[in-house]
Structure formats: structure tokens, C-alpha cells
Specification:
By secondary structure, this protein is α/β, with parallel strands linked by helices. It contains four helices and seven strands. The longest helix is centred in the N-terminal third of the chain and has 17 residues, at 25-41. The N and C termini lie far apart (26 Å).
């Protein structure tokens, strides 16, 4: 059981809800390890519910890029969904919104992952 992620596979793909308000250096280390293991075990069909995340440090942005790379290398896909306006704005400013797959809702994320 993780303090940082809740997971669900009922939709046929892995959905993981990030349970922390911020993703800084400490959270990045834990999330990287947990998500990489989950992604590998589920063929990298992974949706990350970012609803609770209100702040993301540069190291957290790097984590998203690295996970996206791992998903593509594993012939899968990483989809971020339920982003706050603040996180969406950060991704837009850093132009990461063009390289990461972002969905508005869980249903949209599942459709993109299937």
C-alpha cells in the first residue's frame, strides 16, 4: 500500500491517483520508483490522476518527462488527467503540454489508453 498512489485496474488499464499536494524532490523519488514498477507490470497503459496535485517543482516536471519516455519505450502510453488549472498552466508555460498526453477526465484518459 502506497502513501503516494491509489491504483485501480477496473477499466482494463492502470489508473493511479497521485495522493500528494506537491511533487518536489522527495515525492519525485518515491513516485518514480512506484510508477515505473506499476507501468512495467501493466504494459505502460497508465493514467495518472493529478487532481490533488497543486504544486510541482522542476524535478517533478522532469519526472513526468522521464515517465513519458519510459512509457513510449515500453510501447505504451502515459496519460495525465484531472489537472488543476495551476498545473495545467505550468505545463503550458514550460511547453510540456505539447509533449505529454493530457486528458480532461478519467473517461477521456481511459479512451486514450485503450
Amino acid at each position: 500500500m502506497s502513501n503516494f498512489l491509489d491504483t485501480d485496474t477496473a477499466t482494463g488499464v492502470l489508473l493511479a491517483k497521485v495522493k500528494c499536494e506537491k511533487i518536489s524532490e522527495y515525492e519525485t523519488g518515491v513516485l518514480d520508483q512506484e510508477i515505473a514498477e506499476l507501468g512495467t507490470n501493466h504494459n505502460w497503459k497508465l493514467g495518472l490522476n493529478m487532481h490533488e496535485v497543486q504544486m510541482i517543482a522542476s524535478v517533478g516536471l522532469g519526472l513526468l518527462v522521464a515517465l513519458n519516455r519510459k512509457a513510449r519505450a515500453g510501447k505504451g502510453k502515459l496519460v495525465l488527467y484531472n489537472l488543476s488549472d495551476q498545473i495545467r498552466h505550468v505545463l503550458k508555460l514550460t511547453k510540456l503540454d505539447t509533449g505529454l498526453t493530457i486528458a480532461a477526465t478519467q473517461d477521456d484518459a481511459v479512451k486514450l489508453l485503450r
